[in-house]
Structures are given as structure tokens and as C-alpha cells.
Protein 1
Amino acid sequence: MTERRVLAFRVQRQGLHRRAPRGSLVRVLSAMAGAQAQIESAAGAALAARVTGLDAAAVAAAVWQTRRVAKAAAMRRTLHLLPSDDLAMFVRGTAGRADKEIRWMRNRGVAAPDLRQALEATLAVLDRPLTRLELAERVGEALARPLRWRAGGGWGSSRKIPCVPVGPIDTPSSYLLDLAGAEGVVCHGPRRGNQPTFVRADAWLEGWQDLPRDRAEDRLLRRYLRAFGPATLRDFVAWTGMRASDAQAVWERSRPELLAVGVDGWTGWIVAEDREALLEAELTRPSVRLLPYFDGYVLGHADRRAIVPPEHMHDVYRKQGWVAPVLLVDGRVRGTWSQEGKGRRLLLKVAPFGRLPKKVTRAIEREAEALARFTAHDEVEVVAS
């Protein structure tokens, strides 16, 4: 199989060849295996690159009004927008990460009964949306422990954060949420001012259906390969943030359903039933997209040389984990971009990695107009930098 056909397959599966109708938001989010939402506006822009005429209000309505989309920590312990019907698959399927937190607490002298009591109390009080402070207060009340404060805002901050004593450790409420991931599924509730809230999925989502972890892991591997295949076990580890041994176990359970594919000297795997779709994958016209910060397409693999020129890796994958907005042409990154709002006007600065054909520059202008509509700007100017 040629690399070009593989990229065509991935672009089509990611919804980056032809935009889907506006009402397809949830279906597209499912097909692309979630949208990273550390920057929530970037998650919306990722969807707008795949869905016709999408605006920020439609994304917000899907999360906070109809609740067909949920915001939760999943792959790589990062926030994602995820289809609510699949939330158990994404969260339970990556829940092995919480085992590390449990071991850390136990290795520092927290007795198993104390840890179990804290986990049960945390999940019990999350029957309604709570801020981090409210969570610490209610868990402290349930455990009859005093609320404590300590410095630990992160990134060198001296900000005080609320903690609950669990054994000998003053445990921040954010860490209680991480620990709770070993037992339950927690998602974000509506913000209160500038504060996020957290709530159990079964108390927030209508028709909630849970999954055992092993079944969630198996389904997650299939979803990953359908969106990002052909891919390797190493790719799956990088995308999920799983321990390699845990991912290997999932892979081995699913191996009878997988098909090996030779791609220009390396071997990847797909779900066997996708064989014909891969064989027929083709880009019938130029595929040009402006993908935002942390777009899933550029986070799906450990080896990214097929999509990003090696000499430009540091332009895309930057310090402190930042992933730049990119210009995607036929499945390959051909530049980066930035935006600046000037009243009702949007200034888009594109930094291509080389000379671009006229048909691509014309397509960039069309994509810039779509981005301006999503960001509620009336005009857009594109500048090559």
C-alpha cells in the first residue's frame, strides 16, 4: 500500500476531505475519535474544519444543552469533547492511567481502607456539578476531615489549592478526581464564572450506559484504528497514554479482528473490515484544511514523519507540549498559521513550509472564510508570513 493511499484513507475517515452536513456534529466527533479540548475553542474549530457551517454556539449547545457531547479527561489524560453515547468507551478505555495514582498513594503510606473510603466519598458527592473547592468541602465533610490549603497551583504558581487529608497526604481535589477515574466516570458540568465543575456521568447524561474496562479498551482500539489506521501498537500507546503492557494486552485480545498492511517499507494494522475502504481510498480533489491547536489528526501517531516534514517537527510540536495550528494539504502538514482578531475582522497569518500551488492558496482563502464564520468575524484577510 502506498503512503499516499494511507493518507487519503485517514483524511477521509477524519472528515477532512469533504465537510459533513451541519447536523452531523456528533457523528463526525465519533469518527474522528474525539476532539482535544484543553483549549475549548480549538475543539470547536476542529469540528468546524469537518462540519459545514458550524459555529461556536452549536458546539456549546451540544455540550451544555442537549448534552449529546460531553467534556471529560480521556486520552493522554487531556480534556476532550466526546460523544456522550461513547463516553464510557473513551474514559473507561483509558482508565488504566488511574492505577498509577492509586499505587502512588499506597506507596506513600495511605492504607487501602482510607483510600477506598476517599474514592467512595468522592464519587458519592459528585451526584451534582461541583467546583474543586466544593468537592473538597463535601468530601471533607463525608470523611469528617478538616479542609486544608497548600501551595500548588502549577507552573510555578503560589496559588493555594483546597485539599482533603487522606491518610498522611493532603490530597488536592484535582487529584481526587484523578483517583476517582479508577472507579467511576466523571465529566465536566457547566462552568460557574471562571470555575469548571465536575459531575458523575450517570448523574449528568440521560440514558447513561457504562462499560467494563476490558470491553471499553477493545472498542477503543477499534475506534482508534478506524480513525487513524494503518497504525502500530506504538502509535496506539502514544495516542491513548496507556502503559505499553496494558496496550499490548488489548492489542492481543483484538488481533483476530486486525489486518496487517505493508506501507512503503513499514507495517501497520487496520480493522479487517476496513480493507476495501483502504484499497479504494483516493483524494479526488485537493484536500486543504486549517487545523487548530491540538487537532487530533496530528496527534494520532508516535511516528509523524508521514505527515510532518522532519525538518519542521519543531515548528508543529513545540515546547511544553504545545501543538501548533497547521495547514493540511492532502493529509500532509504544509505550514502553520496564527490568527488575530481586529474588531469584526480576522487577520490570518499563514507560514507555509515552501511554495504552494495557486489552487492551494485559493483553497486557503476559502478555509479562512469558514474559520471567520466560526469565530463570528465579518471579514478575513490572509497574509503569508
Note: The radius of gyration is 22 Å.
Protein 2
Amino acid sequence: MLGSAFKKLLPDAIYISSKDYDLRDRNQVNEMYATHKPEYVIHLASRVGGVLANMQNLGDFYFDNIMMNTNVLDAAKEHKVKKVLSCLSTCVYPDKVSYPLTENQIHNGPPHSSNYTYAYTKRMIDIQSRAYREQFGCNFISMSPNNLFGEHDNFDLEDSHVIPAMIRKIYEAKQAGEDVTMWGDGAPLREFTYIDDICSISLFLLEVYDDPEPINVGTTGERTIKEIAEKIASYFNFEGNIVWDIYKPKGQHRKPSDNSKLLELGWKEENYTDFDKALQKTCKWFEDNYPNIRGVK
């Protein structure tokens, strides 16, 4: 998803996917750096998923992500890359924490149990980046977005995130003339940032940010899962019922973030895409491209 969005901003950059190299394999990662000789790297690779995928694949999520992160950063050091920007997530924050989430709280306690192995691997990007900066002088920085969404997302119902999962469920329920069932009670609160904004922020940080501490980059403003489901239903003119299965896990209740450090650097609140417009664009893209979409076909 993010790679597709970046191509609109940087069409001439080098894009690497899992089809090109297995980033869990140190030899393949070294080959990648030796072949392409990058000066700047934006490290977005990860194995991700929603609540169910995280809970069912704790060990796999840990191994795949810790190996990718370790190899990408260590090889960047060996090949003398000028700067690396890595992507964390607000899931790195402790489950019991003071709100809003500020960058100095990342390591103050364990993350939420529903995705703790993924969260710890993301925390280790921060640790590895700091260690390499101190020992080897590497300019490795990291950003922490909140929940991302947009075109080219993963719409697989087993391992997608909440917005793409709801878009697909509601769209297909409408086509079938059926009600739709969602997990939990719809009460959890989340912040969401449109993918195009994260791409612009990434380039902004490559220019102006050189500090060792991670920086929150997502837009603030919480919305309930129920509210978003209703917005999607309205866009698709869905006339069925939205049924909430309270016996299914719903994840962490809330995790509001503080993006004041980003704003102090010069990023403007008005630079973020309006949530409703971004959600409509994502729904339209899904409708126009269904079923030839990642996770569907």
C-alpha cells in the first residue's frame, strides 16, 4: 500500500518488494544493497495483520519482523547508507500509559497482549537505530504512524486491518443482500492517517529530522470503530444491519497519539487529508477495482 503511494511522489526511486528479495535472509539483503547502492532508505517492510492475524501468528510475526529489521539496518550500516528512515507503529506503546502517547513513553511498559510480539519487534528498530547511531555514527531515524489506510491496501479478511476489512465486509454484504457482522462492540477508538500523507511526511523527515528519538507522525482525532463502519455503509448505500459480535476480540480500547514534535518541525495540520474524503476515495477505489484487489483475488 505505502509503496504504491510512494510511486506517485517518487516514480524514479528504487522499490523493493518480497518478490524481489527475502529480507529475512542476510545474504539476499546484502545482495540487494550491493546491486542498487542506495544512499537513502525508507524501510517500510513488515509482516502485518489485524487482531486475529496477530493473535494466531505470534511467533511467525516475531521472527519475520525481527529478521527483516535486523538485516535491513545492519546491511545499511555495512554499505554506508547516508540515512535510513524506518517505520514503527503506535502499537509499540505500552498498554497502560498516560495519554496522549508521547515518544518518551515507548519503553515504559509492555504493549497490548493482542499484538505484543509485533510491537516488540517495532520497538527494537528504535533500539537498533540508536545503538548504531552511538557506535557507528549512522543517521538512522524512525517515525511512528497510527492506523494507515488507503488505496492498494490488503483486503484479506484473515489478516487485514480494520478499515479494509470493514470496507470489504460491507461491500460484499450489500452485493449478497445480507446483514454484516463486525467483531467487538464498535466502541474502541482509533486515529487514522491516509497513506498519501505518510509518504509526504516521510520525505519531509528525510530533509529536516536527524534526531535519535522516534517521532509520531499520524493525524490526531479519535473515531469509534462503529462510526467508521456507519460511514462506509453510508458510502455504499448499504441497507442491511450491522451486527456487532461482542464475543470476538476488539483489541486495545484507545491509543491517542501526540504529533506536536512533527508540527514543531514545520508540518501543518492542514497538510493532512480530510478523513472523510480519504475514506471515500478508498471506498471508491475498492469498488472500481473489485475483485482484482490484494487479499480478494
Note: The chain has a mean pLDDT of 94.
Protein 3
Amino acid sequence: MRKPVVVLLPGDGVGPEVAREARLVLELVAPDVEIAERLIGAAAIRAAGDPLPGETLSVCREATAVLKGPVGDPEFDAADVRPEQGLLRLRAALDAYANLRPSVWGDVDLLVVRELVGGLYFGASGVRDDGTVFDTCEYHPSQVERVARRAFALAHTRRGALTSIDKANVLETSRMWRRVVNEIAPEFPDVSVEHMLVDNAAMQLATTPQQFDVIVTENMFGDILSDLAAAVTGGLGLAPSASLSDSGPGIFEPVHGSAPDIAGRGIANPTAMLRSTALLLEHGLGRTAEAQALVRAVEHALATSPTQDLGGTAGTAEFGAAVREQLALTAA
């Protein structure tokens, strides 16, 4: 039987620091998994002139799952070749179309399912002769169908409520989106479906996020709303994500940026990276028990050994050690 392979892409800024903690946790809870480390982002540009070198992509294609740290560096903000381009290419190459963004805090427990490889970010764009600049939002019904079906399936395993968010009163793509969601709904009779316009959804998320179970929406709306959901449940620094494909490896990564201002100081909070590792264990490796144990260990460390950004004193390594200690205690 083929040994599971996780490709670890540490990324930039604080990425290598939080990736180290993720690697140590993986080695502890899944010692049979082979970990292959490769470059992406600014580190890859410096080493190979490409934010996603061919060798990195090749290894990722053959992997069981990909665990990625944040990418980005101010050095390349105005450059033609930028670190973030590597991430977009990786998502497209692996067809990681379903982005899962859980947000849990107190009595809030919601999951945003964002379509990740279509829409405005991948449509035609350019500049016309008269100076007009355009970006095109395009979706094929099949793209909507597959992400909606995955969202329904996830809602089926949770509280059975799906909210589909669009702008159907204005956009043709949204009207098609709503129609396709309604066509799929009868396949999941135990899941209730509500449609909500994106502007109202933003207000509802900010004021009463407890009402939501699973949210499904298109790429740009999902980009914005998932960050809002993270903000009302502790902040981006704690938020994990999983980007899943139907046929290849998923990409698991923290939502926060590379934080170059604190890189190398050992104070970055690794919570989002470790929670992303838990998503990898669950959705990438099918190891639900280990994933749940890691989630509980992270929660324990947040309560007992918080990092500086949460008012505590623990550094990156100290927080990671607290997580591993708790995992060892619960496994004993």
C-alpha cells in the first residue's frame, strides 16, 4: 500500500516558523506519513525565479495532501512576478475548487464553502484602447453544481442548514447560481436551503453569525465573507482553511498573511497553521480521531499557553510544545 505523502510548503515570512510546528505535530500524530518539503512564493522566486517551480508542482500533483504556509513579501509587491501567483497557479493546477473556511467561537459554529477556481479572479481581464479596465466574472453551471453539491453534503453532516449567498437581483451569474442550487436541493431532502443576497449576508454575519451553519458562495463573495466570519470569531490569525479537489490532493493553509514584520522573532501564533493541519488530517488523510484530538489540544494551548497576540507570553515554539504535550497526555 502506498505510503501517504504530505508536501509541506513553508512559504514566506513567518511561514517557516509556523510550518515547523505543523511538521512536528504531523510527525507525532501520523508517524507513517512521509513529509516532503518544497519551496513556494518569494522563497521560490529567489531560488528558482518562479513562485511555483515545476518540481514543486510535480511533487504536489503526486502527493496525498499539501500543507502550505503563508506566501508574500513586500520586496515583490510591485513586481511582475509575485509570490501570490504561485498559490493561484497551484489551486488551479490541482483543481482545488472547494475552499472550506470554518469559524468557531463560543456559540458560533459556521462553515463557509467558497468556490475557488472560477469567477472574477479567473475571468478575462485587460485594458481597452480607451483606457477602460475590465475584469470578467464567468461561471459554468458545472462549476456551481460541484461546489454546491459538496456544500450540501457537508451540511448533511452538520446541522442540516445551507445558506447560498449571491447577488441575484443584479448579476446574471448569480441568477444561474441560484437556479443550480435549487436544482440540486432535492438530492438532499434533510438539508434546508435559504438564499441570501450578499449585502444582507454581510450584515447578518456581523450581527448574528449564530444563525449560520454552512454557507456556500462564489469566489469573490466567499473571499470577503469568510474573512468577515473569521473576524467575528477571533480574527484571521486563528483561521484555517482547506481547498479540496474531487480527484487530487487538497491544499491546507492558514488564512493569515506572511507577517514579514515579525518574521524570525519566534512570536508568530501557529494556531491557524495547526488548525489547518487538523483539517488535513480529517479531509486529506481521513483520520478524524487524530484531527479532533489536535483541535482539542490547540484549544487547550490557547487557554493555557496563549501567544503574545492573545495577551500571553508564549512564543511560537512554546505554543507548539504545549500542543504536543497535550496530545501526548491524551494519547497516553
Note: The mean pLDDT is 96.
